[in-house]
Design a protein that fits this description.
single chain, about 240 residues, 6 helices, alpha/beta, Nucleotidyltransferase, domain 5
Amino acid sequence: MINIYCDESCHLEKDRSDVMVLGAIGTEGKSLRQIYNDIRQIKRNHGLDSWFEIKWTKVSKGQIGFYLDLIEYFFSSAALTFRGVVATGKGQLNHSLYNNSSYDTWYYKMYYLLLDPFTPPSNTYKIFIDIKDSCGGKKVRKLHDVLCNNKYDFNREIIEDIKQIHSHESEILQLCDLFIGALSFYHRDLYLKPESSEAKRAIVDKIIEMSGCLLNYSTSRNESKFNLFIWQPRRGF
């Protein structure tokens, strides 16, 4: 059984960002206890409470060592994998031209692009999505239907469940927030601004160094550790 934890950044239709980032971290259920213990030990190593919440918006110069250690932990752990989708051109979408009934429909199509390659039928999955509002339950059920139907998984034997959870319930979900925050920071061109946080730039640099990826390009679809897809709208989309 693989557990997958999903989060998003700049996901609202009118949030003054032209970029949306979706991310997912996967791990085998049997590895969860060890991963949580490891992350809490990293917190204690840096003088933090074991329940300190990992969050991109909390990244600061004073805690940079802690966050860099988390990035190193992810890349050194064989039990953790990441897939991210960076959707650009969000503000110029033409939903009617491509049969999207609304921005929400497009949003869940992007979620499909995130999760479908991340859930090959050789395993079984439980998917956990960060709660952003009180209206997501119906959409999550629809996403479950679409993912299962594409895999002919009509009895839900591959993707057993998709449900929403709060970020404080899972440190793996919090770690996902850190990665998508870094991708959003990079693709919104904040990385290049001299007034931007040095600590956040250091995290982006660490991800580039350890992944060996240029973050403005898609990785190979078969990349297993740090998989990235850059989605761009077709002309007129």
